[in-house]
Specification:
163 residues; Rossmann fold; 5-stranded parallel sheet; 5 strands; 13% strand
Length: 163
């Protein structure tokens, strides 16, 4: 049974698309919310940018139709996508966000939100039967310019039972 709702930032959507695992999201969540600001960041890469095709063709994504009301403390500390993810979650009473960047994760925690990231999504999906090898997914992310630290990858491999 999928969990309820998650608000997702730009980098995780791009990372999941690069890894070939975009479809893990509807396996895990009934509602996948994408702020308009995040959709704009992905679409800025053009129709051939990583994640653009998935964003535009996935009917299960709930892309917001208006901009988030971003409080100044978020606008001054984060990029628009991260700030919109946190603001959307807080405004709609959604407890879970997916953010990969360190500062965004810190601000989400300070805002009282629960967090996951690209690899967290993949680990959870694997546990629910999604056919993914975390090491291969991390390599595909790296091949598309998404940099994960060796420590983060090692932790993910251990959590997924791939060590």
């Amino acid at each position: 049974m999928p969990d309820r709702t998650i608000v997702v930032n730009t980098t995780p959507l791009i990372a999941l698309a690069a890894a070939g695992c975009f479809d893990a999201l509807p396996l895990l969540y009934q509602h996948v919310i994408v702020p308009l600001e995040v959709a704009g960041e992905i679409r800025a890469g053009g129709t051939h940018g990583i994640g653009a095709a998935e964003l535009n063709s996935s009917a299960w994504l709930e892309i917001q139709t208006s901009h988030a009301m971003i409080p100044p403390y978020l606008a001054n500390a984060l990029d628009r996508g991260e700030a919109a993810v946190i603001a959307t979650a807080l405004d709609r009473g959604i407890r879970l966000v997916c953010i990969d960047e360190i500062v965004g994760r810190r601000m989400a925690r300070l805002s009282g939100l629960n967090l996951t990231g690209s690899l967290g999504i993949l680990i959870k999906a694997k546990r629910r039967g999604f056919p993914v090898v975390i090491a291969d997914a991390a390599r595909r992310m790296h091949d598309h310019g998404i940099w994960l630290s060796a420590q983060v990858i090692a932790s993910a491999l251990a959590a997924a039972g791939e060590v």
